[in-house]
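Hey forum,

I'm writing up a methods section and want to include a predicted complex as supplementary material. The small molecule is calcium ion. I've pasted the protein sequence and the SMILES. Can someone with a working setup run it? I'll credit the forum in the acknowledgements.
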Amino acid sequence: MSARAWMTRAAMLTAALACAGVGGVSLAGAQDSGPQYPAAGGSTFATGLDGWKPGQNECGVGGTPLPLCSVTNERIDEHQGSLQTTFTSLANAGQVADGTGSFTSPTFAVPADADIGGATLSLSRRLTSDAPLLDGAPVASLAVDLVDVTDPAAQTRARVLDTSLDANDSAWATQTAPVSGSAIAAGRTYQLEATSRLTSEQAQALEGSVMVGLDDIGLTVTAPPKDGATGATGATGATGATGSTGSTGSTGSTGSTGATGAPGTTTVQTVVVQRSASTAKPKTNSAAARRLLRVDRLVPALAHGPFANQLRVRVFCKRSIGARCEGTLKVRTVGRINTALRKGVRRMKKVTLGTGSYQMPRGRVGYAKVLLNDRGQKLLLARGPVKVDVLVTVLDTEGRQQVLRKRATAALRR
Ligand SMILES: [Ca+2]
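Reply by user p_vandermeer:
Happy to help. Structure tokens for the complex are below, copy them as they are.
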């Protein structure tokens, strides 16, 4: 987030608190231009890690590292410097992997004379990918803990934010979360710890990389209401907090109830409103996606010849796309099928039979290739034809990934 955006946020927050009758937000040593911790104005990673430490994380199953899966935590140049956790699967591991990546902030001490009423965590985040993503389901979670490290031998932590990210979160967005006054105290030392985790379902399906980005993170501590006189109004302050919950409700009412949602309090939660609106949108086969690309049908694969072991997907790249359609494809069984090829053994699983990528000029009809993987070939020969979902991604004109899904039958003919 730019310095200007931070100032706008601070101004909105101040306005909202003033509306609710709460006294000023200034603290000894506090900055008015944004979060105070771990750095004044928040960590922006403009020139480096800003003292944050990447965790040493691995993909694994129940603590055992998986050779075909990796996690990296690093600073990248995007968004004028940001943190990124990348989950990569080098092949279809076919096992449930647990991918976790983390960053820890520098420690920060809250002055012993600080007068604390509560705090707000704010950050920017996004989820990007070069792999087919689960349709409409959460792909990864992002959690932030406030860890009290005053006594290193007896650390305590409070979860401040726990949000899930999906294919619709590919653009940077700001998110805020309230921190209760009991989680942060004067005279103590803290660290923020941000953890990204792939959902086990996405980890199992991952073929390619999923990246979780983090930026502009900081904690803004606010003072409680001041004196007796304000104390009475202080009760109104509490109502203010309830007001913010109200604003989530206002998602629906944005059109009509605008006036009812009224008092400035609504402004504080604007971000949350946008977020719930985007979560509510259909993620697969959305109207936006269908304007770009049409998935017609799946051609059975042949075991021999020039198209050996390819499932071909007929697609139409519509004229409303920019220059061309491009993305990735994946063919996955709809239900669990018996993946054991020995007689008398049963191992039921949903299986990705093959993947591919495609590019097609605007206005064309053509075939996008999906190469069957070894297991896909064997299973189709042994169990085919099987019902599958064909998942095709396409980038829209704003660079957002859209996903189309078509139910079809996959077969491999000898
Ligand atoms: Ca930045």
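Some notes you might quote in the supplement: Residues 44-46, 79-82, 215-216 surround calcium ion (CB under 6 Å). Residues 1-31, 228-282 have pLDDT under 50 and may be disordered.
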